[in-house]
Amino acid sequence: MATAQELRSRFPWMEKLEDDADVTSLPLSEPGTMLADMDQYVDATSPKRGPVTSLEGEKVPVGGVYIVKSRLDPALWDRVRTAIR
Q: Whole domain around residue 10: which residue ranges?
């Protein structure tokens, strides 16, 4: 499991998440992971797009690392949305 420092090095926007526990508790969906239809996600590698809604049969593409809303506590999802702005 990666440390908060390692994740912040990989994804600089995570610096805005002040609590190390928030950073290390983010479940990262790697390439090839299937997404639930109509779930929301943020691409940790390109967060400026903001939250995106998944379509039918969509999966995380090569090069992407997604943070999926349904896998997070609602308060943490809100902190992620604030951090990517």
A: 4-83
